[in-house]
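FAQ: What does a multi-protein file look like?

Like this. Sequence, then tokens, then the next protein.
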Amino acid sequence: MASPTPAAANPKKAQAVPGSPGPGGGQAGVMAGTGASGSAGNARANMRRTSLLVFFAAVLLLLALLSLAVGSKHIELAVLWQALLDPNDSADHAIIRDSRFPRAVLGILAGSALGIAGALVQSMTRNALAEPGILGVNAGASLAIVIAVGTFGINGFNGYVWFAFGGAVLATGAVYLVGMAGARSSDPVRLVLAGVALGAVLSGIGTALALVHPSAFDQLRAWTIGSLEGRSADVLAPLGIAVLVGFVLAGFTGRSLNALALGDDTALALGYKVGRARVLILLAVTVLAGAATAAVGAISFLGLMAPHLARRFSGPDARWMLAYTAVLAPIILLLADVLGRVVIPGELEAGVVCAFVGAPVLIMLARRKKPVAV
């Protein structure tokens, strides 16, 4: 009696791939089925991510409206809609038009910029605890403010905001030059070390000069806290342009960030130019963090919190993570600003509220048993 063939002996194995085209078609059928199911799974995941992103965008819009209504003077919803659609010269409409609306727009622009800058820095350095301040942005901006007030006698936010932006840009450029001096390739560890070292030097110089000029010290202290209050609408257009440029640069880095997450050797093997990608990322961080920091001050922890929160919804894909961060970061900043108006009589600055929220997040990250993937 002839022994049965393997297919006959194991009917389930023979029918593992329905529709296999004869001998040799089983493996191809498995691969085709896996590819089809994988594509369907990716499509469902992208649909979920898109739906959730739209939901967070709606939350951001509602928070912006809440920011217009909440303050030392409560404004009814009907008055708010009238101020937005058919404004007049009444006192309530003037408050919304001249103070709260620019404040809400500033929170959205600056929050998105600081969040994206933090996400880029974390991805570039592969350090889950990194934020834009490690590249000398805050130190350069604060030193420029002290020089503007103490040396040139410039007072008021509208006067020294441009010095702050220039100082942030120059400091970040110096960090890159020092970190890459004598190196054949861009090393994120060297960049971080150069940023921490130069940041400490610039902060020390700025503090020494501020102690010599009391007026400069007062201006620096008010700026360092970080706030959306008291900012002029004149900064919105330049900040919007800077944020747009930074977003375009960040958009070009999406695929590079995914490759850099695998390591430099793997990224090079995949055909990515690691050095060029890091320069592009650094340019985006400089524009975004420099402009936002100059506009609202040194708001701590926002560039750290928002990317980590975004990764919980976006997964490992850096492109989705950047999109989520651009929406979640302004939600955090506007929420901190609104809470600061109501938690105590008077007003608590948004930078202080962000620090209260961000400090526990940093402690939680430091106590994690497993490192956070970036």
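And here is the next protein:
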Amino acid sequence: MKHPFDIPESKKIRLIINTDAKNEADDPFAIVHALLTPRFKIKGIIGAHFGTYRTDTSMQESYDEVVKILDIMKLTDEVPVYKGAIHALPDEETPVSSEGADFIIEEAMKDDPTPLYVAFLGPITDLAAAYMKEPAIAEKLTALWIGGGSWPDGEFEFNLMNDINAANVAFKSTIPLWVIPQNAYKLMRVSLAELAVNVKPYGEIGAYLFQQLIDFNFDMVEKYIPAVIERAKKAGHEIDPESLSDWPKGEMWHLGDSPIVSLLLDDHQYGYEMKPAPRITEDMRYVHYQNKRMIRVYHYVDSTFTLQDMYAKLKLHYVS
């Protein structure tokens, strides 16, 4: 993609995006923002699964959504797309096969001095699988993960729920890891009115980003929540519909995946702390048990910086 300005080559980074793009509506905003960013040499985008709570083809749906975004932006021939794992790790010792994991290994092991970052917007399955297949990647890349419950106790969190085993593999690995947990990524609060003014008018992709969010609001109420309740019922579980009625709220959203862009533009030096990696229980709580393996845990993301950068890049690219 041709950008309206450039930066020194020495300031650029290689980036792989791993995304459950069709799970909900925020991943596409982060993908588009990254594609419009001159600092990033995007080497590939991997479609990720998002569990089976409403579909049995979640990875393929994510893959198809990435293909659709690239087609709208006329970048189909510029950015390769790969298929990630179709399901979570069965345990912490057994990798699952995916071309996404293989691609991470391939890119990490290249003789390229440009720093490599791999950003995970959903479950961290493909990173764990790649590491188990080739542990040497730990010295070749830095991983960012949008996921995990609020620090320091933990709680239910969707990306984590879809592969707790993979999170534990990554946490006990030697991979440099930046974690943006729920209490940090939910700072990315935005209203639909703000997106209607700052995103919708800018190109076919701006209109698409806005409309797919509007559509998801209705689909969640009319299709997805009933599907979740029905699947749970078939599995022998009863879900109170009222417990699912608070989200989405209707006129606002959390663009929770967008920090992958702003943190790679500026790492928010005072927005994180280095913490010993915990172990994660089946109920998604953190067990703090060691003090040697350290990870970067974010407690703050600058939403104004993030959103204004996205709005500006849409306008720069799509105002004639």
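Q: Is there any per-entry metadata?
A: Some entries carry free-text notes. For the entry above: The chain has a mean pLDDT of 93.
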